[in-house]
Input
Amino acid sequence: MYSRDFGLTETQRDFRTMAAEFVDAEVAPRAREWDRAERVDPAIVKRLGDLGFLGLMIPENYGGVDADMLSYVLVTEELGRGDSSVRGIVSVSLGLVSKTIAAHGTEDQKATWLTRLTSGEALGCFALTEPGTGSDAASLSTHAHRAGSDWVINGSKMFITNGTTASVALTFARTSEEGITAFLVPTDSPGFAATEVHGKLGLRGQATAMLTYDSVRVPDSARLGAVGKGLGIALGALARGRISVAAGAVGVAQAALDAAIAYTAEREQFGRTISSFQLVQELIADAAVDVRASRLLTHQVARIADAGVTPKEYATDASVAKYHASETAVRVSNNCLQVFGGYGFIDEYPVGRYVRDARVLTLYEGTSQVQKLIIGRALTGANALV
Output
């Protein structure tokens, strides 16, 4: 009998069990409500902090939780199974912001932000994407210039998760013709504004925003890492982040599969439940195989990361997992909607939400096409972008 426990330690199983119980009790039952309202309950952030899910892999002296990457993956899969909007809050605030501060921040920066972020008192957002710059992260137009001992930032960002709820924006700005620098910008800074994006296809409960920087002044102590080294910091964060996106995609696909299997035992046609129809079983079987394959790829790259290699060394493996899992989530959720027939098209059932939430997984933190370029370049040694 196949077991999802294969190769997991007792601690890793405990993390997954705690996340699954939280999702089943507090997230999944409210996901439709949040999707309709285009807003998750803000209280869920404090619950995520209380459970330690916003502090996984962060040092304990900053309020973090001693955990490995695979434990983080198990938690994010469960959160994705419950509601991708909730999973996105964790993936961005913890995976992209807190982990980056822990890796590159000064002691003062860690003391200022990490305890607040891990507790859920504050959230972070990752301000990289711009209205005209998505996949080409090196072509940022947001810029920062020196003003005495300060920096002044001007520009805008787009599609920023947690943008209207974050207390700190990890902001990437051009500081020279060739260089990009990272800054920790408090969102209450004069000149900073966040406008929520409404009418999204999926992830409707998650706060997504456009950010504007109108001569936002920050001290040099807000600079994260060396001047001109921000692109490397961003790419390292994205390599880590793609692992959690892959895990979340596995969760979406698993949720769709679970819903479809349950529905086949309830729905009757031609005098019997549709679970006995061969073509329905084919849809279910294909979905189950795809989910297992994506889970294994995601666990594999998590184990590679846990072996102590740098994000640059596992970046290709992260792209493999993210590409496969995100495309799988789209395919599986779409096929599972087919099992529901017309009922899958209304939100009385969750499978329509899974289809909508899955689609964006192929777009953010690098589109599927970008992932294929990364994989192809690693295999051939040739840069297809040139």
About this structure: The beta strands are 124-127, 143-147, 150-161, 168-174, 180-186, 192-196, 208-219, 223-224, 268-269, 272-273.
